Known about the structure:
Blueprint (H helix, E strand, L loop, with lengths): L3 E6 L6 H7 L6 E5 L6 H7 L3 E4 L5 H11 L7 E5 L2 E2 L2 H12 L4 E12 L2 E2 L10 E5 L4 E4 L5 E4 L2 E11 L6 H24 L13 H12 L5 H12 L6 H29 L5
Parallel strand pairs: 1-2, 1-4, 2-3, 6-11
Antiparallel strand pairs: 4-8, 5-11, 6-7, 6-8, 9-10
Helix pairs in contact: 5-8, 7-8
Amino acid sequence: MSISVLILTLNEEQNLPRCLNSVGWSDDIVILDSFSTDRTLEIAKAAGARVVQRKFDNWAMHQNWALTNISFKHPWVYYSDADEVVPANFRDEMLAAVRSESGVVAYRTRYKNYFMGRWIRHCGIYPVWILRLFKPDKVRWERQVNPVAVVDGKEGRLQEHFEHFSFNNGLDAWFAKHNRYSWQEAEESLKSLGKGGFTFGGLWSHEPATRRRALKELSFRLPFRPLLRFLYMYIIRLGFLDGLPGYYYCRLLAIYEFMIVIKMREIRRRQQGLPI
């Protein structure tokens, strides 16, 4: 049994060749493209991938649309961003997992995030268990940005890692992307606050994904979020052990947190008819 591969793209000519090369073992690679204007489609077609285009609205709707409207050749799908790479050991573990009779319908895995040529192991971002290998009819996504997977069935875990190179397109691209993300995070933050009180039980869950969601929900309610996030990642989660790249990375994510906070304020002021 093989695995279909789904890759989301928008102007990814820099990253896509390496990503495609790392999943070349699959005979069903589907590119869901948001109308790229660079060589992304040319690269995808040259590699033999199928191309489907859809205008991007938000992450959950985009991914849910893909699972509902794309016909995959195989019952299992591996989802990848274009700036990610699947090492051989991770490929082998996935193929073994889908051939097993475990009753699992979706697998979570971890990734190694690289910045300035170094794996950023600390900074509070490792290990993050995210859903990447699944049966498409058993999964749906919620939340506009950094979507949360809702699985209808038994989950499993893969022990190997994929590799993430989120800065390959340069810092300009990183800031542009996170400028977009911060609007969606601001809206999600206000939506969460509008629901009322916070339950601390999720912070003590045995499931890392549940703890991570609870921690994010708690962060919406804390003052000085950018500073607290820097201190949490750099000191409590030992980001300083990642050297200078770790320091820069923590500062960048604190900037991102500030972008969310200030946009929450803008949204509230606009709702009140106040000037920005």
